[in-house]
Amino acid sequence: MISQSVAGVSLAISTVVALLNCFFGYKFRKLWVTLAGFGCGLLAGFMLAVQMTEQTGVLALVTILCGLAVAFVAFRLYRFGLFLLCGYRTFLVVSAWVSLPWLAVTLGLVAGVLVGALALKFLRPVVIASTAIGGGATAAQGLLVLFSIATDATWTLVASLGLGALGVVFQLLTTKK
To answer: Tell me: the pLDDT tens digits for 54-111?
Structure first.
């Protein structure tokens, strides 16, 4: 019972954060840059630590320290952080829609690097698109589960695209060029 409550609260919080990302991604880009850096650092730190040790404490410490270090660098080096933000969001969305694990990672990395590089050249539209579409996809999945609506792939895709499109339009209308 407690684990279901914790899972429900976690899902609700992540859905709210995803909605904020979807509709206010460009305005909160410094926060998202830092969080994306932390996420990328956690992932890299975990992959590194797993190769070094099997001790849970050391594994957790290395993972968290890498997350914090990359978050700090992403915040301080804003353009690097933007690359991580847009690339990380793209990686998550692309890899979630591909069923073969190796292909999901490969396509996610290629798409992530491509969108991250585009963000450096076309900052506003790429940040708006990646935060709105990524946030919309995550929020749609959370909302469908929270409200016990059919969660098959078709509904998830329709809800993701709908929320993402609304987020893009909202951000374009509420941010300066």
So the answer is: 888 989 999 999 999 999 998 899 888 888 888 888 998 898 888 899 999 999 999 9
* E strand residue ranges, 106-158: none
Q: Is 32 helix (H, G, I), strand (E, B) or coil?
A: helix
- The tokens for 75 are 């915040």
Query: Please, what is the Cα angle at 153 between 150 and 155, to 5 degrees?
Result: 50
Put residue 149 in one of left, alpha, beta given phi > 0 → left and psi -120 to 50 → alpha: beta
Q: 23 — phi, psi (to 5°)?
A: -100, -20
141: which residues sit within 8 A by CB, 6+ positions away?
151, 156, 159, 160
- What is the token pair recorded at 76? 């301080």
Question: Is the predicted pLDDT of residue 6 greater than 90, yes or no?
Answer: no
User: Based on the number of CB atoms within 10 Å of its own CB, is 69 exposed (0-12), middle (13-18) or buried (19 or more)?
Assistant: middle
